[in-house]
Amino acid sequence: MTCVRPDSSHLAVVPAYNEAATVGDVVRRIHADAPEWDVVVVDDGSTDATAEVAHAAGARVLRLPFNLGIGGAVQAGFVFAREQGYDYMAQVDGDGQHDPAELDKLVTHMREHPELDVVCGSRFIRDNEHRYPAPISRRTGIHIFAFLLSRFVRQPISDPTSGFRLYNRRAIRLFATDYPHDYPEVEAILMLHHHRLRMEEIPVRMYARGGGQSSISSGKSAYYMVKVLLALFVGLFRRRPLPEPGGGAPVAAETGI
After folding, report:
1. Helix (H, G, I), strand (E, B) or coil at 119
2. Gyration radius of the chain's alpha carbons
3. Nearest C-alpha neighbor of 119 from the set 127, 130, 108
4. What are the distances in angstroms from CA 24 to CA 49, 52, 94, 126?
5. 49-59: pLDDT as tens digits
6. How do the domains of the chain map onto residue ranges?
7. By CB atoms within 10 Å of each CB, which of 84, 153, 212, 214 scores lowest?
8. Rounded Cα gap, residues 163 and 159, in angstroms
9. Are the C-beta atoms of 41 and 59 separated by less than 8 Å?
């Protein structure tokens, strides 16, 4: 992919699988509430009109040839951000849970703390004024992951499954080369720790998903818990080389629809 310096230094990556019901509103809200952000929707092999709706709303669209899962879709966004030279990349879910108006809060915090490589929006920090309506079964799993990660990385972690995160160039380069698949958010925190990149959480507003279907249904909750726990413990002993600045990885083709 040819690197062309973008007009904006900020890229919002919206991974989407069969999110035609919500992705258009997400793109329009980013344009309205965070107009300095470029928007790329990564269509993860959707079988509905996700790509067409996103394009009509004004997003650039990367279409993956088949469904890779959330990790593969987000990594395609990291590769795009690295190759196009963006200074910041944020993940914004395509189901409407994340509030684009909060993007400025993430950027402001990173600029005030230049030692940070990732700023993560948390639903569960104690002083968060916005109560997130998570089912108790989901909260229980999140709190177990938070308990373990807080001890592994030796800093407080409250919302390890949050996908509302801002990354600087160092973090973009790392995850463009190596990013967990399936359910990546928890293991990604461990990766940051191993590579000596710094992350901090701040409280943000989030909503219940506006449509579509969660990849973690009630029937998959136990499977999700076991798989993520195994990935965490394997990740504790897995060594990953730091990515080189010119390291490459495949990226999806852009579509003009």
Report:
1. strand
2. 17
3. 108
4. 10, 9, 9, 32
5. 999 999 999 99
6. 10-240
7. 214
8. 9
9. yes
